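Posted in: Protein Modeling Q&A

I'm a second-year student putting together a small comparison for a lab meeting, and my supervisor asked me to include a predicted structure for Acetoin utilization protein AcuB. I've never done this before, so apologies if this is the wrong subforum. The sequence is pasted below exactly as I got it from our records. If anyone can share the structure token output, I'd also love a short note on what stands out.
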Amino acid sequence: MLVKDIMTVNVVTINQNQTLLELQGLMSDDNIRRVPVVNDAGMVVGIITDKDVRMASPSEASTLSRYEASYLLSRIKVKDVMTHNVKTVYQTADLADVASLMYQDQINSVPVLDEENNLCGIVTDTDVFRALVDIFGLGQYATRITIDASDKPGVLAEVAKMFADQGINILSCVTSETKRPGEKEMTITADLSQVGMGIIEEIREAGFNVTNITTGRAK
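Accepted answer (user: helix_wrangler)
Welcome! Here is the predicted structure, written out as tokens:
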């Protein structure tokens, strides 16, 4: 799955020379919390969040009136508060790449660029989580079977053939590392409502260790 498949394409932006008062109104009108910042040429030069605005705004304990507070916000430029070293990804990047970037840099949104380095979208942690739900088939009523499998060629094909022989459609299959050398954990999500649980016994008879079986819809 690529970033362009999960990103928000109609991106609201703000110029770096606009004020925090303008930004506050923009965020309120469009109900958004993160805004990419662009220069006069339209190139991404930063990103700013509602948290940045709150940190730069007068405290609620302040004796300033609403008008005085608004005046102060009208004097602060976006470029004075924004994050300058903004991380970006290309729209053709893989979901795993953007998830790794967000995790390693502890950020919750990333502007997306096209091949000409123009802003074409934004991807957030919510977009990534939603994509993972789709990949794991968690939004559907299904059975998730987790097995230990040898980390060698042909294992996935062997397991998939068992499902195919019984006419069972695999909704998703995800492998992950284990602490045991030479082994991986494989989680298969499939709809067994019409065929029963016989496939699980077949998997065991083939020599695989079934470690978990969960049926239902993820909450």
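A couple of things worth pointing out for your meeting: The helical segments are 20-30, 50-56, 66-75, 95-105, 125-136, 155-165, 198-205. The mean pLDDT is 89.
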